[in-house]
Amino acid sequence: MPFKPVIFSATILLSFQLCAFGEVSFSRDVMSVISKSGCNAGGCHGNQNGKGGFKLSLWGGDPDHDYKELFSSGTRVNLEDPKSSKILLKPTLQSKHEGGKRFDVGSDEYRILLEWISAGASTDLETRPALDSIQVSPPVSIISTPERSIDVKVEARFSDGTRIDVTRWAVYESSNLIAEVGDFGTVQFKQPGETTVLVRYLNGRASMRAAMIKDNGSYEWNGPDPRNGVDEHVFSKLRLFRQNPAEICDDLTFLRRVSLDISGSLPEPETAKSFLLDERQDKRSRLVDSLLESKEYADYWALKWADLLRVEEKTLDPKGVQKIFTWLSEMIGQGKPLNQFTRDILCATGSTYENPPANFYRALRLPVNRAEAVAQVFIGSRINCAKCHDHPFERVSQEDYYRFAAVFEGIDYEIIENKRKDGFDKHRFVGEQIVKLVPIKDMDQKKLLKDPRTNERPVPGFLDADADSLKSYDHRLDELSSWITSHPRFAKVQANRIWANLMGQPLIDPVDDVRETNPASNPELIDFLANELIKSDFNQRELIRLIANSSTYQLSSDPEGISGIGPEENFARARVMRYPAEVVIDAAHQSMSVEAAFSDTSKSNRAISMPGVESVHLSKDPYHGDRFLKVFGKPARLTNSDAERSNETTLAQVFELTAGETINGIIKKEDNRIGRLIGEGKDDLQIINELYWAVLTRPPSSPEWSLMLSYVSLAENRRSAIEDISWGLLNAKEFLLRK
After folding, report:
1. 301 shares a domain with 448
2. Between 432 and which of 133, 300, 416, 612 could a Cys-Cys bridge form, CB atoms 3.0 to 4.6 Å apart?
3. What pLDDT digit, counting tens, does each position of 695-713 carry?
């Protein structure tokens, strides 16, 4: 189904209940007041260390703890004189309170707390029905000016079947500054735009998307025909937002874009000229097919996985890094299905040299690190918050966290040799290791992982509370890989990652944060892509092919005539962005016909094929090419996050491009493209034309012809003038940025 909104602009009149069950309940009403007032937020008493000697669980994740904490001081709850209780005096500023006023005397919040204390301040945590879920309506709402507000309704659903309107007691937060949400669930827009409204009630989490668009009564759709399901879902949302997409980009723009996006490599001038002259209707799809079979494609996407899997020399050693990068490239080149690829990684044991994916566990030495990495990379779940407290955004408790971490216990290492030069650096290993699973009976019981709340060893299990228990601890990695690759989020996070790499903008942002409270900008599209990935047996090439052949991917980046909110977020036009560090430096060398040189142990001559990061981040004497990569954001691979890489532009990059050794060295190298063209006796016109095709994948425009020919003809030194032109082209936005 295409993007389906709920157009919802009428005002809802809500009748709120003061108490969820007709009488004051600690588990529902008191806990709701504490959350609604912000008392258990991270900046207040929900802080890890509490505030003013009073520590509540973050966002009410542990009501039993909170009840005990309320009574840990005799003055917080005063049963003999309820009105003198500190939980009434401080938030109303009848008594000094660093957190300021949270509610007024006589307010609903005040009355609930006072009535609860007056009735004896009992707990009902074990007797009241549990909260199953909360439902937010409408799930999607779009209004047009002059309307500026949307009323949201929240319904709580309990285990006994009870459904209660809790709009008054839910906590709301807008994902950006274009809108604010009032205490009673009214979304008030400050300007046109789209936002996600996060909603909390007790331990329930939900979200809805809201947007305000400018009224455009004369709107008519004027876009290309959809080529596949990608376009159907993208164009459906654009119509809804009364936006028209850009035109389809020209052939040379497409050639350059798809070559760099899929293979990380520039097309050669002759390839570009031939493509331009090719009159076949299917030449673009033929090009996509050709790129997907190239060695560069395999290396470039292996590079992306190497970032995620922390392929770096300090923990793996140079040979291990080379082994796993080669394995990644081979698996991608062979088209190994992503689910089997993942299984091979998660189940890998043995020699880190003979079985390269075993390096994944060599890079992650602790059970908690393995658990966090696996959850984030493969199912888009950032569980690290649950290490200290129940996860504030997901249904992952602290107990779930340690149960999952326990699955990764007993992964040990036999160090065959360690030839590290720095004997004081205990985190560095140089030599082969054997990754092995140790039987539970053979583990050092004193070193086993313990849940800090109970000080007991957790029972190993998966994050999903409904998942089957481990059948065999000795085969836990096999069971883990089956659970991960069959998880609904697995296909979704892989599809989202592929989409983001091709389009420059994920559907779920951040890429590896897939949860109900972080909805996709186009939920139907991400579901479609995930289903297509599953239908293709997790064939990465097929999903890339589907996206690259869509009209959406092939839209121009030209902003002219593109109006409305979020044209790039809604994919109304191609996103302009800087290419990754490796692509930029390889393109510079390739365009000038110069072989790159890096100081890594593999002596790589292409940055996209560089296995590790040691020469970039750890070397005491890096080559200028290594320094270039660092300045342009190549990650040190110290995390398992897509976000570690930076594609932002910085002042240091400007200096590197204009005055750095790398670009100037490429231009001045005697036998580069400039030297070859001069040596072949080419005239100025031919040389300038060739340089434009090599660097920018297009011929010069008429004004450029005139300017460049004039510049060379007036120069005292012909070669120096041509070098200046090359320097200008390599510093052009058109060279550095995807368009």
Report:
1. yes
2. 416
3. 999 999 999 999 999 999 9
